[in-house]
Amino acid sequence: MNELKLAIFDLDGVIVDTAKYHYLAWKRLAQELGFDFTERDNERLKGVSRMRSLEILLAVGGQQKTEEEKLHLAAKKNTWYVEYIMQMDASEILPGVLPFLQALKANKITIALGSASKNARTILERVGITSFFDVIVDGNLVTKAKPDPEVFTLGAQLAGVPPQSAVVFEDAQAGIEAALRAGMTVIGVGDPQLLQGAHHVIPGFSSFGFDEFLDIFITASCANDCQGAKSRLE
Ligand code: BG6
Ligand code: MG
After folding, report:
1. I need a surface site. Which of 10, 135, 218, 224 has the fewest CB within 10 A?
2. Is 40 buried (19+), middle (13-18) or exposed (0-12) by CB count in 10 A?
């Protein structure tokens, strides 16, 4: 019988909208390299690692660089990105996220971060929510990028929870695939047309409460007898 024990959050696009800062920094790099990079192009970078993002950007501009040049360009982009995120504060937490984190704590659900970003800890600090997280897995801890399940599998391991007791919140297709491969329940955050395979998709956390969360977990994780999942709360 599966019991709901762990919520794992992606960061960019789920807790905060940092995609706009990634975009500004990548666009600036593209301009410096002599080509344009559109918001539509930027969609392809969501959930994708920094180096893979750079490769996509260079392909958009039809440019080839050596490994050394790529490292230099990625570092440059990151310097600009960090300048943006250092300006962030609590006002940038997406609507409904804070009350939902509080509800998880009140219901004794372990909270983890599962992000590809090497800047994840800085962002959590800037917006003031680090203390909510029992476990933080970021781009510095994992070797394989989403859709590899490593980021979520490690999160569950560090929390001491089996994958079938975990629910992942993700806004990127690569992340949804990673969570499914980890054997977890996955809730997409965003447009259901764009997020394939998630057990459920919500537009955001604005009107999302703990009861709905529990219902989604129960529906996704136990086909027959669901008393086990509910009983811990009774
Ligand atoms: C993901 C973002 O969370 O982190 C990607 O969705 C980003 O767009 C990736 O490329 C890596 O982030 P960072 O901060 O390590 O460059
Ligand atoms: Mg994301």
Report:
1. 224
2. exposed
- Fold: same for 6-17+90-233 and 19-85: no
**What is the greatest pairwise CA distance in the chain?**
61
Which DSSP category does 12 fall into?
B
Q: Where are the domains of the chain?
A: 6-17+90-233, 19-85
Q: What is the model's pLDDT at position 221?
A: 81
* Residue 78 alpha carbon, nearest atom of ligand 1: 16
Q: Is the CB of 45 under 6 A from ligand 1?
A: yes
Work out which ligand 1 atom sits closest to the CA atom of 11: 3
Q: Model pTM?
A: 0.93
216 C-alpha vs ligand 1 centroid, how far in Å? 28
Residue nearest to atom 12 of ligand 1 (CA): 117
Which of 12, 41, 138, 171 is catalytic? The answer is 12
Q: How far is CA 98 from CA 57, 82, 102, 104, 208, in A?
A: 34, 23, 6, 10, 11
Span 68-78, average pLDDT: 98
Spelled out in words, what is the top-level CATH class assigned to the domain 19-85? mainly alpha
The predicted-structure confidence for 83-101, as pLDDT tens digits, reads as follows 999 999 999 999 999 999 9
Annotation marks residue 215 as catalytic: no
Task: Check pocket membership of 22 for ligand 1, CB cut-off 6 A.
Answer: yes
Looking at residue 231, what is its pLDDT? 52
Q: How many whole angstroms from 173 Cα to the centroid of ligand 2? A: 9
**Is CATH 3.40.50.1000 the classification given to domain 6-17+90-233?**
yes
Atom of ligand 1 at shortest range from CA of 47 = 6
The answer to whether residues 191 and 155 touch, using CB atoms and an 8 Å cutoff, is no
pLDDT digits (tens, 9 = 90+) for 1-40: 689 999 999 999 999 999 999 999 999 999 999 999 999 9
